[in-house]
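My current task is to audit a protein record that another person submitted. Please read both lines and tell me whether the tokens look consistent with the sequence. Do not assume that whoever made the record got everything right. I have pasted the whole thing underneath without changing anything:

===
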Amino acid sequence: MVIDRQEYINNLLAKRWNGKVKIITGIRRCGKSYLLSKLFKQRLIKEGVNEADFIEVALDRKSDIQYRNPNLLYDYIISQAMDLERKFYVFIDEIQLSYKVKNTDIDESLVPEEDRAMLYTTFYDILNDLMARPNLDVYVTGSNSKMLSTDIVTNFRDRGCEIKVYPLSFSEYLSAIEMEKSDALEEYLMYGGMPLAVLESDGKGKRKYLQGLFLNVYIKDIVERYRLKDDNILSALIDTLSSSVGSLTNPNKLANTAGSLMGQKPSYNTIKNYLDYLEDSYLFQSAKRWNVKGRKYFDTIQKYYAMDLGLRNARLNFRQQERSHLMENLIYNELIRRGYSVDVGVVELSRVIDGQRKQSQYEIDFVVNIGNDKVYIQSALNVDTPKKKDQETFSLRNTGDFFRKIVILDGNRKAWTDDDGVMYIGVIPFLLEDILTVGSN
């Protein structure tokens, strides 16, 4: 079975021969390599590119392990592209496995301390050289956001462009299976969108594959990349985050919870560093809290969401299945996948409660930023009673502005709007059509 990822292919096609290195990022095993070396390559061949015009290196393969040395990688690619009259597509898979090599031709004692990082050749150096060659169109994949996303501007100086690849969206998932939408949603909430998990024939195979990914790929990668002495703290933190997706938290609170699992409390700085490692590896994503009326961010508390619900569920042995949390995580992932900037909203109100005036905070699940426009989104399983509807929309009705407001409900219900201008829509149609672009400025 071939899972069509046409949106990503179109994005890559639009960026061909633009003079920049195309950097394809995302969590390991989400389909980056398959997208580049199979789907995109097949499309190019279909359009007339010859098989011999591809130069491919996979740094996670034993046969190509020597090319983790950036100098050897550079020499190999140049040797394959000697004919300057021909155009070549260069595909380098898992570029973050490349290591830096010290230049021994320079006397280090003559180099100021602050400049000694420049004594090393890195993959940034060779990519900057390769993409400047008019007969090479360069594409790389990577699974570390800090090494790739964060440093694109610094190291490529606007000569690199990033294409973020995510696990299968619900729309992609639905196109790959033969199942009714409502049944497909149940499977998707349980097993997520990691491509090889989707292709497993039964639940037992899906569970075994997803649980193996954590032990044999993600945790192992983080331990090796950051040279951790053991994975006990990391494992406890992953369990804590998985159990509390969509809950407000901070490093101190996470340290306490993780410490209770381990029998001893890790330090604030350790937890802070490990949170960075998990985000850099795309296992979790964080959302900051935005004060809607005060128009500022809260510094200390935020939320974390799992990149893939199947992985999250596998980590918890498929035990904790709170639907409201799963749906909130699902909606967040879809918004991020569509390229939106998303915050957690807070509405501060002064209200008289039991005869006393109190300052209270009311949450809006998501504040979606679309240029100068915003859309407020609340995730709710239902609004079946007037009381429930009032509870779910109270924060939306008290923002003090006129931005659009949407409540996403469980199921497949079509969109409608109430007298207050709040739109309601089922999660299935929301996942299958980007309604946020309708009416946006």
In short: The chain has a mean pLDDT of 91.
